[in-house]
Amino acid sequence: MLPDRVRPSERAVDAASPVHRFVLENALEEIMSVRLSRRSYEHARKLIENGAVVLDERDDWSVHQPSTRQENEFISEHGFNEYQKWYLGISEDDDEDDRKRYRFPYGDFSRVHLCGVLTAESRAGRYKYFDIEWAVAHLHGMLDALMSTK
After folding, report:
1. Three-state DSSP class for 112?
2. Positive or negative torsion for Cα 146, 54, 73, 71
3. In sequence order, which residues have a C-beta less than 8 Å from that of residue 104 and are 6 or more positions away?
4. Rounded distance, CA 116 to CA 48, Å?
5. Residue 26 burial by CB count (10 A; 0-12/13-18/19+): exposed, middle or buried?
6. Which uninterrupted H or E stretch holds 89?
7. What span, in angstroms and rounded, lies between the C-alpha atoms of 12 and 23?
8. How far is CA 142 from the centre of its chain?
9. Where are the beta strands (DSSP E) in the chain?
10. Which of 32, 97, 130, 137 has the fewest CB atoms within 10 Å distance of its CB?
11. What gap in Å lies between CA 105 and CA 117, rounded to an integer?
12. Global confidence as pTM
């Protein structure tokens, strides 16, 4: 079985310049502390099964992603317990009542967006969050299946 996270060898970190060593060590700690929220994954699956989706284009996420104002309004109305359902990743290092704890958004607080799923899938793969990457790939497949029926 492969490990969830792959760390460079100590020799590789030791051989790096001081600046690169600092970046490697600190970036790795950030990577290591984010895990899949199964609750959020199940929430996204149910939304897709119920047709609460937007089958938009990959590059639309910059426009469709909720703004900071929208996030704050949602938290004020619904609390962090509901807010976290819209983020597939949880940072173990941040407080539960801190927005930066929640990573990999996929929707607009009412529907799953294909563009959000594609962005999350790309980022999860880039940073080697294998559990999140697998979950997002499954959501992507569900959305692809919906598109093929239309």
Report:
1. strand
2. positive
3. 87, 88, 89, 120, 123, 124, 129, 132, 136
4. 13
5. exposed
6. strand 87-91
7. 13
8. 17
9. 34-36, 53-54, 87-91, 102-105, 112-113
10. 97
11. 8
12. 0.78
Assigned token pair, 100: 């930066």
Please give the average per-residue pLDDT across 104-118, as a whole number. Answer: 98
Q: Which two tokens stand for residue 136?
A: 């997002």
DSSP 91: E
Q: How many residues does the chain have?
A: 150
| Tokens found for residue 15 | 């051989």
Tell me which amino acid residue 11 is.
R
Interval 50-93: pLDDT, tens: 999 999 998 999 999 999 999 999 999 999 999 999 999 999 99
Separation CA 65–CA 84 (nearest Å) = 15
Q: Which of 3, 9, 11 is nearest to 32 (CA)?
A: 3
Tokens 């109305």, located at residue: 77
pLDDT top residue among 127 and 20: 127
Q: CB of 54 within 8 A of CB of 111? A: yes
The strand pair at 34-36 and 102-105 is best described as unpaired
3-state DSSP: the chain helix, strand, coil percent, rounded to 5? Answer: 60, 10, 25
